[in-house]
Amino acid sequence: MKKTGHFSSFLSGAAAALTLSLCLTTALAAAGKVSYNFANVSLDGGTVIAAEADITAANGQKIPGSILYTDETGGKTNYLPLRKISELLKVEVNYDSASKTVYLGKMPAPQPAPAQEEVIDLSIPKEVPKNPRRGDVDLIKSRGGTILPDDDVNSYRGNEKMYRDKNGSTRYEYLVGNDGALPELDKKAKEIYLVNGDFPRNKKGETYGTMLLADYVGYAPDLEVEQEGYVRFAEKQAAGDALDNLGLSKEECPHEYTYPVYDKEGEFLREAKGTCRGHFEGKSREYIEQAMIENRLW
After folding, report:
1. Buried b (16+ CB within 10 A) or exposed e, 6-34
2. Phi first, then psi: what are they for 105, rounded to 5°?
3. What is the pTM of this model?
4. If pLDDT is split at 50, 70 and 90, which confidence band does 104 have?
């Protein structure tokens, strides 16, 4: 069997046949320009596809052995099933539905998925600072903090040395116990909420106070002061997230959720209400920015 000479053009036509059979056959048939099983097909002198006869596809269904397309000028073109051609000429054929590509011969090796773009924190220096600003290491450790390695650039933000507090949050070393770094408002809060520079503890051993002083003390309090009571931040956050994660429309959303408020001993006082994080369709930029501030979305 000779495959040279007309082989490339033959396969090119075969690829076109598949495209037409997938995309155009139904429309053309409705216009009366398509005929099925019109021609005999012979290979090396032997009939391999008979006129007036269907062939059997791989899934067992009967399909036309050939398609005759007549164009507007009366020109005629025959199309044959590509799978049948591949079997007769022993040329592998595959179809990639994702890229809508017919492959004659070997398929290309799968390409590795593109690596996710790395998010670079520009505040992390490229090299370890020579004279970083540090803090009271002993005080940080006494309050459950973990000192980060000195030789790792990820331990710094700009020229500031960082540490990890007992709750896993990353904070600046130099702020812990540093009265000189406290704003005036926080100095007043310190007089109200702290005992010997630390959050006081209730009978259950829980700390309570204001989040304004978390960097100064070295960790966030268990009970955060709010509206004549205290809240457990994790509980409030979870209640808000539960509403926002429902993905409700503006019409379906209840717009409010509740969370518990406690006294400083951690005993339940009442339920407080929070609001959803907003539905911003048609709202001004100023409205959205204010909503983000109120709901801690910055």
Report:
1. eeeeebebbeebbeebeeebeebeeeeeb
2. 90, -155
3. 0.51
4. confident
